[in-house]
Amino acid sequence: MCFYDQYQMLCNDYKWGNFRQHCSKEYRTGETCGMKLVMQTIPKSEKCKLCKSIDTKQGRIRKEEDRIHRWIKEEQKGLVRGSSIEAAQMTIYNLQTEIYNLNHERSRNSQGTTK
């Protein structure tokens, strides 16, 4: 039960910071007991890496959806965009799969310990 700083992200996730103090169970110099307790929580004004990645992928999905809507309007004017629309839909599907996996990883990380 050694003490560490904890960084609280804007998305309410956290990450462990620097080691601060040994607990009474660890007597060896330079070693820690393996259990982490929070010495202090330091708020940060940014999101965690996973949330940043999710936001980026959601932005790309919105961009692809806008392109699809534009291409559908162009098809109504006589231009053929079928393969482009299919490729964009496949890109959206892949991005949604990646977002699902990132959300799953984020929830798995938060279940490891309580906040």
Largest sheet composition: 3 strands, mixed
Q: What is the succession of H and E elements? A: EEEHH
Q: In percent terms, what proportion of residues is strand? A: 15-25%
Number of helices: 2
The largest sheet has its strands arranged as 2-1-3
Mean pLDDT: 86
Structural class by sheet pairing and helices: alpha+beta
Give an account of the 3D structure.
- This protein is of the alpha+beta class and 115 residues long.
- Helices cover 50% and strands 20% of the residues.
- The protein contains two helices and three strands; from the N terminus they run E-E-E-H-H.
- Helix 1 runs antiparallel to helix 2.
- The longest helix has 30 residues, at 82-111.
- The protein starts with a strand and ends with a helix.
- The model has no long low-confidence stretch (mean pLDDT 86).
List the helices and strands and how they pair.
Layout: E1 2-8, E2 14-21, E3 36-43, H1 49-76, H2 82-111
Parallel strand pairs: 1-3
Antiparallel strand pairs: 1-2
Task: Kindly list the characteristics that best describe this protein.
alpha+beta; 3-stranded mixed β-sheet; single chain; 115 residues; rod-shaped
Task: Summarize the structure in short.
With 115 residues, the chain is an alpha+beta fold. 50% of the residues lie in helices and 20% in strands.
